[in-house]
């Protein structure tokens, strides 16, 4: 839902219900994260292209689910590589839509350097100051908007939660990869340590209470 709200409400992009009819570049920073990966899947369903994803070890996964171009941040040339991808795949179109699904580790600086004037940037953490507010509109995306005071956001969530179930049942989209950590709740500490050490990429860790 965080992915869908960011794309279709805050970035106001075409939806799977009324797909895009012409190319428009979309940058997804953190393409292998769960939020980033679902953003790729939904953008693909909405015929949004080219999708440029920034990722590390999960880059191949992001490409396998619909990313048109992968920029590997580990190469240390993120800004130059994004600009190159835009030049080669966006036919000179401006970058006006950015989903920052990471919102840390310098993502704001990179986005400031490649995004065109008048764009919309949505992000997931409380770090509005990382983005150039004089250059583009900045909107934080939160799943809690599903329960907010604005009726249209509540209606959006009500509708799309049901569409997710339909699309999963029909095979039009797949759930994010996952790994069940042994030991039930007793394995949580080990899972948190894996996350802290950066050992988890392109998957979610699950814990079965019944295994405890």
Notable features of this structure?
7 helices, six-stranded parallel β-sheet, alpha/beta, 8 strands, 212 residues, two-stranded parallel sheet, Rossmann fold, 2 domains
The gist of it:
This protein is an alpha/beta fold. It has 7 helices and 8 strands, in the order H-E-H-E-H-E-H-E-H-E-E-H-E-H-E.
Spans of at least 5 consecutive residues with low confidence: none
What is the count of β-strands?
Answer: 8
Residue-averaged pLDDT, rounded? 95
**By helix and strand content, what is the structural category?**
alpha/beta
> In DSSP terms, counting alpha (H) and pi (I) runs of 4 or more, how many helices?
7
> Which range does the strand content fall in?
5-15%
Strand order of the largest sheet: 3-2-1-4-5-6
CATH structural architecture of the largest domain: 3-Layer(aba) Sandwich
How does the major sheet shape up?
Answer: 6 strands, parallel
> Helicity range of the residues?
25-40%
CATH superfamily of the largest domain: NAD(P)-binding Rossmann-like Domain
What value does the Rg take, in angstroms? 17 Å
What's the overall geometry? globular
Give the C-level CATH assignment of the largest domain.
Alpha Beta
User: How many structural domains does the protein architecture include?
Assistant: 2
Which fold name is given in CATH as the topology of the largest domain?
A: Rossmann fold
Query: Helix and strand succession?
Result: HEHEHEHEHEEHEHE
Distance between the termini: 30 Å
């Amino acid at each position: 839902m965080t992915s869908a709200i960011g794309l279709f409400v805050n970035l106001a992009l075409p939806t799977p219900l009324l797909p895009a009819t012409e190319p428009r570049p979309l940058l997804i920073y953190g393409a292998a994260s769960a939020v980033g990966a679902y953003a790729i899947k939904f953008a693909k369903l909405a015929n949004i292209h080219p999708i440029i994803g920034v990722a590390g070890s999960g880059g191949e996964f992001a490409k396998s689910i619909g990313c048109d171009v992968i920029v590997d941040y580990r190469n240390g040339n993120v800004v130059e590589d994004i600009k190159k991808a835009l030049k080669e795949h966006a036919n000179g179109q401006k970058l006006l839509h950015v989903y920052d699904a990471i919102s840390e580790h310098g993502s704001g600086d990179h986005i400031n350097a490649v995004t065109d004037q008048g764009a919309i940037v949505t992000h997931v953490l409380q770090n509005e100051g990382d983005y150039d507010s004089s250059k583009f509109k900045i909107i934080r995306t939160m799943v809690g908007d599903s329960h907010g005071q604005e009726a249209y956001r509540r209606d959006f969530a009500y509708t799309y939660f049901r569409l997710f179930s339909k699309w999963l049942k029909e095979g039009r989209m797949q759930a994010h990869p996952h790994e069940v950590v042994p030991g039930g709740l007793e394995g949580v500490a080990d899972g948190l340590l894996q996350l802290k050490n950066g050992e988890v990429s392109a998957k979610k860790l699950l814990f079965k209470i019944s295994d405890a």
